[in-house]
Amino acid sequence: MLRADAERNKVRILTAARELFARDGIDVPLASIAQQAGVGVATLYRRFPTRNDLISAAFVEESRRCVDVVQRSLDDSDPWHGICVLVSTVCSMQAVDQGFNRVLASHLPGLTDDEQSDYLFALESLDRLVEAAHAERRLRPGITGTDILLIVLANSGVVSRDPRRSLAASRRLVAHLLTAIGAADVALPHPVGETGLDELLRDRLG
Amino acid sequence: MLRADAERNKVRILTAARELFARDGIDVPLASIAQQAGVGVATLYRRFPTRNDLISAAFVEESRRCVDVVQRSLDDSDPWHGICVLVSTVCSMQAVDQGFNRVLASHLPGLTDDEQSDYLFALESLDRLVEAAHAERRLRPGITGTDILLIVLANSGVVSRDPRRSLAASRRLVAHLLTAIGAADVALPHPVGETGLDELLRDRLG
DNA sequence: GGTGAAACGGAGGGTTGATTCCGCTTTGGC
DNA sequence: GCCAAAGCGGAATCAACCCTCCGTTTCACC
Description:
mainly alpha; Arc Repressor Mutant, subunit A; 2 domains
């Protein structure tokens, strides 16, 4: 049990971390997180000995939301609808949070046991979902569970600093890819040109 | 005109840079490029005052290939075929070279004038190509030139350290996306699962 | 083969960020 | 209120990388 002041600081650190991770990605200097939280670096290190500890803690909610949406998709009586919801949800989460995008798109070393099992659960679920959708002829023949992973990965390529533009690009991309794997066309959202794919390019890191 | 030894060193630096950029991305320490080239850092700096100078020089050939393929696509009597060739070529180049991937997927500050005009030429060409393909009803209605850019961007998300796996993932993704924008299905290459999308994930940087 | 300009390379100073150490402060049970 | 434990913060240390300076070497022209 943490002392009250320590608990308070922990919350402030996590709040700051979530904000900075989302905006600037998971490589932000730890010192700036500490500063934003109004604590010293040592306090941050005391509570989260490694960067990964902090990242894991900062994204627990996002992870839970992912597991939830996977579960709900599995329970969906229409597997194709389940796939659409799953992909759209996860990709939107990526688009509005640079940090979470990196977490999803890269195997961070040192996942916790929980994260490991969530990941395996997701993989297995994807296969089951895809299989169910095939059974109803809602997927193009030859599509596999890893194609869904591939979508998430591809989506990570279109996210930039600006969540607005990222979201527009992501929506468009997801529509394309659902069209590609599905047995029928998916309606297209606005082309990204209007909000400026150029600016999106200009936005990206480095 | 450079002295013979200087010219020799310049070539060695560029060779080393191309190799390390491709394998490790454009953020490799300049010292390791110098070391690999067998020269001192000062020599590298003397020839290429900024990292961007080195990057530009290292990728001139790739840039030229891109401009060429754009030009050839424009000249193609079948605009849809032109689009397919263009997208496949560029995406493959991205997949096998982490450095070039980053160059294409991010607006590096300080492009040379040549690069600027190449970029503008490419943008304009995309619009013309798309228009021509629409005229022949080979594209799904609503597709714009920026959708092609979006493909390249999305493709950047699936490239990892391992060129083999990246290429497999990229091919699959490109097939999906050409299917999505085209008026008819495109044949799918092998699913990536077989070569291991998991490993691809594990591969990615940090 | 002498010479001066060009080129060389490695040491060194600066910056940024990670991580630890330690003397001071706060908390909470008594 | 007292005090031991828990917590705190910032200075200090450390490592990686960038970039420049300068004494030495090499080239190419005579």
